[in-house]
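Fold this sequence, please.
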Amino acid sequence: MRKKMVIGLAVVVTIVGVLFGGAFAFQRKLIYLPEGDPRLSAADVLPGGRDVTLTTSDGLSLVSWYFPVAQAKATVLVAPGNAGNQSHRAPMARALTARGLSVLLLDYRGYGGNPGDPSEDGLARDVRAAREFLLREAGTPLVYFGESLGSAVVTELATEHPPSALVLRSPFVDLASVGQRHYPFLPVRWLLRDEFPTRDNIARVKAPVTVVYGSADSIVPAGQSREVARAAGAKTIEVPGADHNDPAFSDGPALIDAIAGR
């Protein structure tokens, strides 16, 4: 009987070890969900749009889309969420340029056919390359806009390089807080390699902050977005009934007004 108990315990320990080991090894496949080359160019989205190459500090060349507007009042650096590619943000670019704002749609490493593998450190390098490009090209005040995971990316950038305004859409407290909600059976905070501590970083940002979120968000709970807003002393805009990937967060008036400063 004792031998059977020992064998049973060993089997359980082995299964748990495999489960946790797999979760640790493949976690970035669960976090980052890139799509490849959209087979479009910026000019296909808007006349005057440009495919541009951003050079990161670790030597990667990332293709992104830039939509300059003559006499723009500001330029929006768009840091996307964890899925898709820049073509999914084309409606936002159209809406913002119609409001007199230039726009850079950043595609991270590993997204849109770009080289490299995404990680917290890698995305921080990518967004800095985007900012450096805009400092050379735009000649206007910069607005940082981040959606979901991208909110963490631009918030970290803003702690070092404050923008004229920071707009966060559906920000989370930190990545572990979201992961624990979706994988309650795993010790997510212990396993995660990437932290993205939005709430902690936002408290150090010296720029006006606006937080936009959906009341029915099933990915990032609305309470987490409100918690980030409280840490920043930010203006909040709740979109009633909106889920995480609702069309309202593509080019809806509440979001576009928040970014355009209305």
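The first strand starts at residue 33 and ends at 34. Residues 32-260 form a domain with the Rossmann fold fold (CATH 3.40.50.1820).
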